[in-house]
Amino acid sequence: MDVKVKCLSETARLPVYATPGAAAADLCADLAEPLTLEPGGRALVPTGLALELPGPEYVALVFARSGLAVRSGIALSNGVGVIDSDYRGEVKVGLVNQGGQPYTLQPGERIAQLMIAPVTLARFVPCDRLEDTSRGEGGFGSTGRLGGQ
Prior knowledge:
Helix content: under 10%
Largest sheet: 4 strands, antiparallel
């Protein structure tokens, strides 16, 4: 599948799959100079890219880079970013420093991962009754703490 990508600056880098088995491509920071995130600090980091997905049956999802999150506490500020098929603005990545030390993002640094996924649009149908299940209304830990039991 082809996804059109417009570079909005001379320093923007196209998304790249790091390995042949990678499900998501790396997104890089398009910064003119290093940017330091203090502990608890947030920033909206530009990528210098705009996308055109093939149509409304696709979405681009932005995920954290696990290495950055585990080693330095750098994660997405909103969990997962959603880029709708009709959005044409710059892709920016909201990052938060959940670690205990300042972290300095470098220009061109890999900051997130971009995955293209199919979309299934639901039709939401009002009803008076939902089918019963063994779980019922239990949530927020109701299935237990340990797996496989």
